[in-house]
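Running log. JK asked me to keep both predictions on one page so they can be read side by side. First protein, sequence followed by its tokens:
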Amino acid sequence: MFDLILRQARLVDDTVIDIALKDGKIAVLGEVAGQAQEERQLNGEYYVSAGWIDSHVHCYAKSPIYHDDPDSVGVATGVTTVVDAGSTGADDIDEFYEITRKAATDVYALLNISRVGLIAQNELSDMANIDKAAVRDAVKRHPGFIVGIKARMSSSVVGANGIKPLERAKEIQRENGDLPMMVHIGNNPPDLDEITELLSSGDIITHCYNGKPNRILTPAGELRASVAKAIANGVRLDVGHGTASFSFEVAKIAIQQGILPHTISSDIYCRNRMNGPVHSLGAVMSKFLSIGLSLPQVIECVTANAADGLRMKHKGRLEVGLDGDLTLFELKRQPTVFTDSEQQTLTGDRLLVALAAVRAGKWFDCE
């Protein structure tokens, strides 16, 4: 007896299969002959993918700047797994962990290299906040919860410290088993060329299509040589849309040159969820359908690619034995006006609408 069977689920390659879940895991893919406590007949009308992973959110409810409820940015929007990107440091990671245990959404954390986390915008302006021992102890306390570290490398964050916090972050990374590291890029200093010089294979640049002067494109619209070198060396590009970090113009120019994102993430929190321009991960994904990515490419960016980038071997794919996390969605063909972080608009004709999330075999209707 299975826990849940989805009958005639349509995959993004348009094949139609049954999916059976048992004990929170994927049990059977294909034609399922058995019965389940709950069955959903989809008749090939609705898409099902591995559960969407948003690898850059802010969902620590007690953060004074960027905060939200994990389920409001998670299962309520079709996202089964969220990764909080640096809201908490070593000082408040324990409390954040306890809060997340009550969520239906699977929640993980990228630990801010500043022990105080995001209690202010300039958490790396005082090098004393970067406490290696505190990071090490936090990672030891939460080895399954902390999946990486986060360094916000823009002028408003680092103050007069320039590139020094990133140098320290790389030391911390090496001392903690080469955890994945996500690096926020924004206004300089430090300059993006300095940042990329320090990055190595597996490191993640988030806000990769921001429209600020310190961006991945030269004024002539070509990819910076330093960024090209970093990508060739295995550095990954993450969208991290956010309130001020995504430009249609930059994304379109880059994608036309084959500079594709490895992961699509929202950088969502309560304000940009309710007031825009983010709204949801699905809305951000829809924007990429409108600027040149195919549906399979977009889905891969929030499933397999997201899982690979943060070494989540139990997620991101429809494979027997992996987590029973699924997202049920529609691809609506309707004119939709999208807005980026620069207040520029783009009209697309396809909209991804999440209908339900299945997390560890349990069904959650989207709001």
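And the second, directly underneath as requested:
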Amino acid sequence: MQYAMKWLKDRRGVDVIATAIPEPATYQNVIDHYTKLLRDNPRITLLLLTHISHRTGLKLPIAEISRMAAQHGVDTVVDAAHSWGHVDFSVRDLESPFVGFNLHKWIGAPLGCGFLYIKKDRLPDIDRHFADEDHDADDVRSRIHTGTANSANYLAVPAV
């Protein structure tokens, strides 16, 4: 997901701001950090957030940050690779319109299995993948074209 942000810089000329969560992290200093980030950078339109850090195990208050961002007209994309299957939550709990999930980490699925959640009313805001013609424009599957997938990997997902 970090690579995607860097791609946006190269492809669309956006400014990418990297930020570090204050340590030691507390609920309040994380909230204060994002409050200041949004206040000091009024041109921000998108925040990439990590639900649980693979470096420290920190679980961010995603719903609160997502609500705060929305009040500033800022979208959030949540990387839930390390939280799905590790902690109990629903995608709705995150209050983010976009969430990426990786199933090989805590679920135990084969490499390459994952999914992207796009809130239904936000689907029109995401371009179809290379003008996908396999699925209708209102079908989330038109947003990512995986080509010929490794069927064995996907068949293993229900078992894991």
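Observation for JK regarding the second prediction: The mean pLDDT is 89.
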